[in-house]
Amino acid sequence: MRAAFLRALGGPEQIEVGDLPVPRPRAGEVLLAVRASSLDPVDALVRSGAFPTGTPFPFVLGRDAVGTVIDAGTGAEDLLGRRMATSSLGHDGRQGAWASAAVVPRERLYPVPEEVEDAVLAAALHPASTAHLALHRHGRLVAGETVLVVGGAGNVGGALVAEAARCGARVVATARRRDAERVRALGAPGTAGTETGTRRDDGAGTVTTVDHTDTDAADQLRELLGGRADIVVDTSGRLDPELVADLMAVRGRIVVIAAPPSPPRIPLARLYTRDVSLHGFVISRATVEELADAARGTMRLLQETPWRPRITRTVGLGAARSLHEALDAHAVDGRVVVLPT
Question: Which residue has the higher pLDDT, 237 or 224?
Answer without folding.
Answer: 224
